[in-house]
Amino acid sequence: MLARTVTHALVGLEPRRVEVEAYLELARPSFSIVGLADRACQEAKERVRSGIASAELEFPVRRITVNLAPAGLRKEGSGFDLPIALAVLAASRQLPPDALDGIAAFGELALDGRVRPVPGALIAAEGARRAKVARLVCAAESGGEVALAGVEPIPVHHLADAVAYLRGTHEPPEPLPVFDVAHEPPPDLSDVRGQERARRALEIAAAGGHNVLFAGPPGTGKTMLARRLPGILPPLGDDEALEVTRIHSVAGVLRPGAGLIRVPPFRAPHHSSSAPAIVGGGAAAPRPGEASLAHRGVLFLDEFPEFARPVLESLRQPLEDGVVTVSRVGGRAVFPARFQLVAAMNLCPCGGRGDPAVRCSCAPDRVHRYREKLSRALLDRFDLSLSVPRPRGSELAGEPGEASAAVGERVAEARERLAHAPPSLDENASDLLTRAVERLPLSGRGRARVARVAATVAALAGADNIAPDHLAEALSYRPPRELTE
Amino acid sequence: MSELAVAVFAAQTGEHVLEAPRSRRFEQFRLSFDEVAYRRRLATAGFAWVGRDETAFPPRLRAIHDPPPGLFVRGDAALSLVDRPAVAIVGARACSPYGSSVGHSLARELAAAGVVVISGLARGVDAAAHRGALEGGITVAALGCGIDRDYPRVHASLAAEIAGRGWVVSEYAPGVEPAPWRFPARNRIVAGLSDATVVVEARERSGALITADLALDEGREVLAVPGEITSQLSAGTNHLLRLGATPVTCAADVLRAVGVSPAPARDSERLDERLEQVRAAVADAPVAVDELVRRTGLDPGPVAAALAELELLGLVVQAEGLYREVMRPT
Fold first, then answer.
1. If interface means Cβ-Cβ distance under 8 Å, which residues of chain A face chain B?
2. Is residue A210 part of a domain?
């Protein structure tokens, strides 16, 4: 007796069709899974056995062989539990013979037969759509994700529900409704009082997609400002949203019931994070890291120089190419990682520099070593660098600042302008730039960076050309001398 | 007798030797020392040796009571320090943005007036002085180690820039590693090369004060830049002022002390109204952009643009988020 279900394994962000075949024969009872299944996958045996029993179904007393085909593809994780259980049930005639036609399954079983969500449901569902499978049996929590992919979800809480549905005796529960706005809205810029320069820099960064470095003593609002960048970025378009949601689905950080991610993501990994945590990795099969989770959004690295050198250097590929390539024994994956980098740092290890109220006790050598971790190559990636001094008490008690919505409108207009009619240097601005290159330590890269920022400043001003004033403002965001000398 | 042999002997024995020692060890060394070959090796490395008795040796340095046997020189061979006025600018390594800014502009103005700016290539005030001088003219760095050592290492490119037009000098032969006791000895060369010594910022018991003392011992002028009386970094300079050092409030003060007439004033461009407004708002005290936005009523964009233009004109500098006006030349 043979039965077959379809599911999808994840290879990076790509679904691969996997056929789950169950073969039952009259022989000494046993249960084996073949087809390059990893440990979690092998353990499916115990969950499937107990799950079937808990669903008041009969676990066949047969010699059971489950094959995951193609056998050459490494299978990882617990998403195979549900399809294995269904195949075993079908093979033992506990399901109607054609019940599994046109149906895929994806989910983990609890020992009591409940169906648990597994990261990557969105991608498994996309695989189902591509394979022209119309319906996907999945955990109730994954229903929303599956629906996003354009596949009809059959969300179930329990293996018994799935069986009842397949026997035609029971309608599945409605999938959790999909809200585009189910994600928390990002914090608003109006919370920031004073900080006119930093707010302005944030607006330019949002309009031009520039990376920003904030340097200043602790408690000056660097983190607060960074968190407000996603709120002034334009919401993600359909394709972008799907792309981002897919990555978050694989990483298992998607909230159940939340729909497409429309707000650019904000990720703030701690400075003790390892390189694989940031750019992606995993023991056998590659998993996306923080850089990919921040795709189309903001990657915020607080205490920037405290990150390990290899971590900082590993950011260079995504910053350059917008992708991360991760190679592991289990395969090689390319994850998108086109994020905007916002970094924050103190001016010295003790944090006292630049704060008139605190005396910095760092020796010059120590300050130097702290700043030296930012290689010039890395500093060159920040289009905007600025020192954030401590705001005065009177500023903190002042009026709330402009709201994100108003800033976001200007940002959207400027983006439009930059995309369709990017401003170019007028003659006077060009002269000024030449003068600046002669006068300042400004590398070729630095020159290009200034011109790029100047174009954004001009676009924000609604100008067709980059005037000297736009260029001068752009110059003021070059890395401060204390970081380059 | 060759001073070069003395200098190389000192390097090999790790001692501070000024005169040919009357020891058998030196005698043996002297006999085996091949001066021609050594000079050839120096020249291949792009270095030169100026002995104490040569005419190119700066007379001011020869006049101190313990002049070195000679100087190893890396830099422009055509440069002569013999008849050029020279001023040392020294100060704290852990200086404040104020000290760094003053050291920088002072050096720039002095160098523009034709004065050679002497300092020690240390971090802080020294480096600011060298950088400032490079914008206007010639500077000389005196090291406490071999001229091939580039100490501190961060200033390797600065040293190369200095050697491009000026000199990097040391009494120690190439290869000699920096050692703490060599730095006070280096300070006597900084002071000895100079007609006057300006101390920009110094704590009490700072190395810069040693330089000032050495300058006083040789009867050279000592000047000090006043700082805030509440700042530790001004304790040393304020102490010097109490002892009678000449206060420096502009580059002209220093030029007067060494008898040099100031460089013809650069054609001071008339600033447009907005630049003038922002500059006036910076003049009182170091100030952040946010504060300027409030004081001038301008938007942050135009304020930033004005500040960048003022920076390009060399009228303001930025450090740690605060903009300050640079020292005016007169």
1. 194-197, 199-200, 215-216, 347, 353-354, 363-364, 368, 372, 386-389, 391-392, 395, 432, 435-436, 439-440, 457, 461, 469-470, 472-473, 475-477, 480-482, 485
2. yes
Burial of A259: CB neighbours in 10 Å, binned 0-12, 13-18, 19+: buried
- Domain with A121, as residue range(s), is 2-166
Q: Selecting from 1.20.1510.10, 3.30.540.10, 1.10.10.10, 3.40.50.300, what CATH number does the domain B273-325 have?
A: 1.10.10.10
The model's pTM: 0.82
Neighbouring C-beta atoms of residue A380, cutoff 10 Å: 18
Cα–Cα distance for residue pair A388/A227, rounded to 1 Å: 16
Do residues A164 and A172 make contact, with C-beta atoms less than 8 angstroms apart? no
What are the pLDDT digits (tens) for A12-66?
888 999 999 999 999 999 999 998 888 888 899 999 999 999 999 999 999 999 9
Look up residue A440 and give its DSSP letter. Answer: T
Q: Which of A133, A166, A199 is the last residue of a domain?
A: A166
Q: What is the side-by-side order of every strand in the sheet holding A340-345?
A: A266-267, A298-301, A340-345, A212-215, A384-387
Q: Which token pair is B317?
A: 């500098």
> Which class is B86-258 in CATH?
alpha beta
Residues A250 and A133 in one domain: no
Q: What is the DSSP letter of B92?
A: -
Q: Is the peptide bond before A177 cis (omega within 30 degrees of 0)?
A: no
Provide the token pair at B92.
């704290």
Residue A321 token pair: 């190419």
DSSP B204: T
CB distance A430 to A388 below 8 Å: no
